Amino acid sequence: MLMFLQVARKWPDLARYAAKIEDLDPNYDTKLTYKCNGTCAIVLSLALLEHILSLLSAFAGAMVCFPDMSLYEGFVKHFYPWVFNYLPYSPLLGFMTQFLHFQSTFIWNFSDLFVICMSYYLTSRLEHVNMKLLAAQGKYLPEVFWRTTREEYGRAAQLVRKVDDVISGVVFISFANNLFFICLQLFNTLEHGIKGTSECRNSRNQGSTVFGGYEAAIYFLFSLIYLMARSIAVSLIASQVNAASNTPAPVLYDVPSPVYCVEVQRFLDQVNGDKVALSGLQFFSVTRGLLLTVAGTIVTYELVMFQFNSPQDGATNTTEVH
Question: Where does the sequence pass through the membrane (predicted)?
Fold first, then answer.
């Protein structure tokens, strides 16, 4: 929330700057709106489905763990123990806790959607320049064409930097959240497995639930797959900004010798010497290689955690045998 408040404070100046760029270099990408709306519809629909599955899992757990309570009271006590272990139950407190949980679920998804939609827009600005360059590849064009195109590319690159200054905190939070929850859920999956039995070990009401006691397993699997797919999508879409900024280089290398000029050389130096990409508070740049780096970090984390936990497991097993 604090990151979005900072974005809101800087947003009017950024919008005015973007409007100035749009006036100088109009971009008629008719697919941009459909891509943003379609992505939002898909992600939020999956987020709603994940939330519904989590509620089903919690209600099923409440039926098993709190059979003597009302269904709603058992649900909130089972789903929000960090609240009701310290505060007395009341329907109003249960509703407020559930409402805040619902909001936080969609805010978490909104940060990823915000990064995706901003990446769509910035990629569209760079692709607008790239289309002009690809249409001119190998042609004999005057120096003025290369100068105006280089200046247009420079304005698009500067817009990326301006946007990054505003949203880099949101990018950092998005990647950090995704990395943390992927590591957490993978570790729980690999260490304990996914079982259909309830943690309360009371099978009296288990068969009467919607999925026969497997609500938690279904929710956990769906949540893990959805989280990994969404994280990969954010990484790949945000990295398109950097990929689009490197497209002009091969075109500039193909400029015929008779029309090769200082503007082409300046354009090449700008493309090769300047890294255009979104970043997470300048700690990392979002490129395609970042996805492999994050995957390696996750694997390393899991191996280290298993290494630290294996002696404890062995000691526990030995004690039980004796």
Answer: 41-67, 106-123, 166-187, 207-229
